[in-house]
Amino acid sequence: MAIASPTHPDQPPRYLLVMTATIIPAANSGVRRADPQLRLEDYKRALRYWLNYPHPAAERILFLENSGADLSQLRDLAAQENPRGREVEFLSLPVHPIPEGKNYGYNEMAMLDEGLAQCRLRQTTTHMIKTTGRLTFPALGRALDLLGQAPELMVDCRKLGFPRKGCDASVQLFACSHGFYDRVLRDSREEMNSTDVRLLEHLIFRKVIAFKGQPGIHLRFPCNIDPVGYSGFKARSYNSPRSAFSRAIRAALRVVAPNYWF
């Protein structure tokens, strides 16, 4: 499958950092880090980080929220703690129940589809960087710089460990041109089901693997981009010894076996 209208290599990218947020998770979401006040503090911490991030990846920020929570504290933070003068747009989207047979990933993609369609800042940018809004990714700028030019797609695909089989794509963070999102990912949530495309990680992998090897398509990060913060589902810090061990293995394999997915 070929990509139409790739990003022009001489065009400087203008990134829109999209922070997806659910401050008040649904009762059936399965997350352990579920306390709304705790989650709000996570989002405030992350927003403060990106407002100070010294890389063009965060020059424009879209904060997308889909639980109907009060965003006033976040708006105040953006207005009062913005030393780099970053443009920040907040969108509060309607609360949608998770459809029968789907999981949280369905609403995550619905939030992106609806939010990007309404976003004012999207009209002045060329690329989006989707982040899980409670987390930060210090190596993001370094990874984009290592690519040499703005990607059509940058996502980290992984081989699943035993006893799981196959591959998936990490969805905490990915970057793509607006055109790629509109052509390939928009409305793709309708392909999710209760069997082989149950998780958002499965869906994104299925949608992007067809473009492997094409110019501008990067299905592995050029370096580790490790998250900082707490897992929503396990409420465990990403700085735990187990997570640190996995990161060390991935970092080594990117050097000695760059084509091996782990």
What do you see in this structure?
This protein is α/β, with parallel strands linked by helices. The protein has one domain (15-256): Spore Coat Polysaccharide Biosynthesis Protein SpsA, Chain A, CATH 3.90.550. Helices cover 31% and strands 15% of the residues. The chain is built from 7 helices and 9 strands; from the N terminus they run βαβαβαβαββββααβα. Residues 1-7 have low confidence and may be disordered.
Instruction: Kindly report the CATH topology.
Output: Spore Coat Polysaccharide Biosynthesis Protein SpsA, Chain A
> What is the number of helices?
7
CATH level-1 class = Alpha Beta
Average of pLDDT: 89
What amount of the residues lies in strands?
Answer: 15-25%
Summarize it:
The chain is of the alpha/beta class and 262 residues long. Helices cover 31% and strands 15% of the residues. A hairpin with a 7-residue loop joins strand 6 (157-159) and strand 7 (167-169).
